[in-house]
Amino acid sequence: MSDETTTPQPQSAALANDTMINHALKNEPSLAAEELFTVEGHSEETQYASFWVGAWRRFRRNRLAMFGLVFATIIILIAIFVPMLTPYEYDQIDMPAALQPPSHEHILGTDELGRDLLTRILYGSRPMLMVGVLTGLAGLCIGVPIGVLAGYLGGFFDWIVTRLIDMFSALPWYLIVLYLVMVLSPSLQNLMLAMIITGWVGSCRMMRGLTFSIREQDYIEAARALGIPTWRIIAFHILPQAAPLLLWGFAAGIPTSVFAEAGLSFLGMGIRPPRPSWGQMLADSEFYWQFWPHMFIFPSMMITTSVLAFQGIADGLRKALDVSENI
Amino acid sequence: MHVTPLLQVENLTVRFYTKDGVVNAVNGISYTMQEGDILGLVGESGSGKSVSSMAMLRLIPEPPGKIESGSVRFDGEDLLQIKPSQIHRVRGRDIGVIFQDPMTSLNPVMPIGKQIAEAMQVNLGMASAKAMLESIDLLTRVGIPQADRRIRDYPHQFSGGMRQRVMIAMAISCHPRLLIADEPTTALDVTIQAQIIDLVKNLQKELSMAIIWITHDLGVIARLAERVNVMYGGTLVEMAPSKPLFSTPAHPYTLGLLSSLPSLDTDSDQDLSYINGSPPDMIHLPPGCPFWPRCSFRTKRCTQERPELVEVAEGHTSACWHTDRVLELHRSRSAEVAQ
Amino acid sequence: MLAYTLKRLGGILITLLLLSFFTFMLSRVVPGGPWMQGAEIPMSDQQVAAFKEKYGLDEPPWKQYLLWLRNAAKLDFGRTFTEPERTVTELIRDTLPFSALVGGLAATLAITFGVTLGVIAAAHQDTWTDNIATSYAVIIGTIPSFVLGFVMKYFLAAELRWFPAGSWGDPSNWRDVAWHLILPVVAFGLPATGSVARWTRQCVAEAMSSDYVRTAKAKGLRNTAVMTKHVLRNALIPMITSFLPLYPGMMTGSLFIEKVFGLPGLGKYFVYASTNRDYPLVLGITMFWAILIGLTYFLTDVLYGVIDPRVRITERQQ
Hints:
The complex is a heterotrimer of chains A (327), B (339) and C (318).
Chain A: H1 13-24, H2 33-38, H3 51-61, H4 63-85, H5 117-153, H6 155-169, H7 173-184, H8 188-215, H9 218-225, H10 230-267, H11 278-284, H12 294-321
Helix pairs in contact in A: 3-12, 4-5, 4-12, 5-6, 5-8, 5-10, 6-8, 7-8, 8-10, 10-11, 10-12, 11-12
Chain B: E1 7-18, E2 21-33, E3 38-42, H1 49-56, E4 65-74, E5 77-78, H2 87-90, E6 95-98, H3 102-105, H4 112-124, H5 128-141, H6 147-150, H7 160-172, E7 178-182, H8 190-207, E8 210-215, H9 218-224, E9 227-232, E10 235-241, H10 242-247, H11 252-260, H12 300-304, E11 310-313, E12 316-318, H13 323-338
Helix pairs in contact in B: 4-5, 4-7, 5-7, 7-8
Chain C: H1 2-29, H2 45-54, H3 61-73, H4 88-123, H5 128-142, H6 145-159, H7 174-208, H8 211-219, H9 223-243, H10 246-252, H11 255-261, H12 266-275, H13 279-307, H14 309-312
């Protein structure tokens, strides 16, 4: 039987336990160390995917988001390859063929000047994307650096930035855009300029808030104590954390910009004719909508679907990246 | 004479169905309590101690949680079988609860007097004016000065210890027969801890309530509990009266817990003892005894068969295939220390 | 509390001042006016000169600004370019009620409907009801109001002839007005329901998962009581502060809907003024809106301080 008479000199209680126990168990069938790992139920290392891979997987499961992505891709391709997709020009006037409902020659019909509706719809994707995507990008390029600097440096610079943010928040953004477009006279470029001028505020505010909260963390203080220069701290410690938030912010701005372009063009303050824009086409149908509904139905559908698609992408990103909106 | 136990838990099993897998939070625990018993429920985070108690009152969120099987008889009535609408009868009135974090556990926009009165209005049908008067009385009883003025205050106007007293006042307001205290002192300073424990002890004597005190702190148990249930991996591994648990632990986990407590006798040169390994993955629990991956006494049998609770002494049970070794080891170690 | 209020008020004033300065300067610095080509009222050079003199446009910009500011403080925004018989203030006064009514009703619709939807969704979290409600909120929230207006106008007014297709109706007969307003208000308010519902759901869901709700249940309260006395009371705080700004927001944002339905509101004049570079009018309306919005934010801040006891009551000395 087991021999339990031992006189150990315990250096530590744990060691003592093991020594005595192992001795005690000498004659008892016990498990060899190797056997342990083949026993079921002993959990192996769980593999965790990287953050971005995980985010993509979550995004992929979201049906609306995927729909948005597919739609966005299609629209971008359309915008690029429009001339090859249609035999007509967008300003090709053909009075005898005016106000025709959908037919063989004109798949979506014609407007009051005989211009092919499908062509104009397809060309309308260009201003929509330019305003939607490019202004968002430009807004980021301006807003992010200003926001980060304001948040990190504080002081007078921050005070000015805050006043600017307040000023731009005093009015609904579309009113400011409207005002700017009015002053500058309506055109695609001016609309984009106006959107950029109002758009940088959003990402600026977001980055400023984020920088504030990160700045207080201990590891930033540690970095400073180590003598790491400010620009490195910003580039390697603050910005990487902001990446998901910025991506979502950019995506979330697109549906707003699409709405802006459509809305302002609808009011006559956006894209000027003859270059087509869906909002403008909606406004053009003012006298004809009752008897020639195709003139407003198709632009309406495009506007709504685009906003929905990009909103879906933005929402999907928000859930996939797990972004909290209230900074 | 056979007295109906106040609380009889039998084979309670609770699982959580999450997207990462099924969490086996509680795996078939059974125990009994009589009127006025003070029971300490000890275990580390994730051992199932809180879940098992919350399950009694059906306070487990039903998706994703599910009470798979078992019965919880309070005064003979199985709380898990009664209609959901009937559980409100028991909550607050027969069984009261104190939670861990009093800051978040109190409604921040309601005056505390109203919160205490609410319990009495709902459970005892008391008129609001009378309930407020009772609240003042209760606050004084739990040791809050100027109670008549403070009933109008909001939770954020109290310190942590005070808030916990408010919670206690709320829990005992309807004279429950059983009080479940879910780690009420974990978030408090050590000195306040002692005050709260003493307060509860006194209240227990006054109201002759039974108490289930859930904690991971053995020191608290030593101060308060008459009986102790030790949980690990969702199972009850040892049940004993307080003194025998400390003097003659019969389960390797309990032994490990006690050994890891530094005492005044410990030589400063000695390394602190600890239990090898990490807490179990509740989604992938090993077969057999849940403790075997960390147990120094393990044998092949432990990995295959889950031990039942067996009696090792009067009123003292342990779920281990090698209780004799544990007791033996402890005996010889104590003998050495005595030398 | 008083200091806090005054500080906020001061901040708003500074913002308004800055805003007025920039907008004014912008309009003076960039060349152009109602006399430009393409404007509705073509003028000869002589007329342009006389026009400029009359409106003081030949003075240096900063002088113009100070003059304007002095008048603005008295709420006198001058006379419009395009309708010199009317002062800006008069015009605002005459047209504001229309926008306010449409915007106000739409905001009320959005809040009533949206909150109900959000509460239902939160109460039935992660069930089919929740999914349907949230999907509805997402989809309806992304349809631009003017698009919805157009579609409704076509189907419900032109085709089915259930509602009139536009205009205000007879102002003396409130029933007629109400009839005319149904389509615009619904088209304007319905999309806003989306964001209201989602925010409500978030606030309520967060309140529902908090510890004090667990305590309330443990005390023996029934689910409805928990909902009304604990969940909603806490959820209402962040909700109100988000929903109050909807009112000025929609009152000022009604310009799209006004165009679709031909309603004589302030927005319509704003667009009209913008197209014609009618600076006094545009400036006047802009400043008026800014004041309205600023006041609402201020009110919201004060309200928040009142309803949240954590802000209202400071820690008493123990």
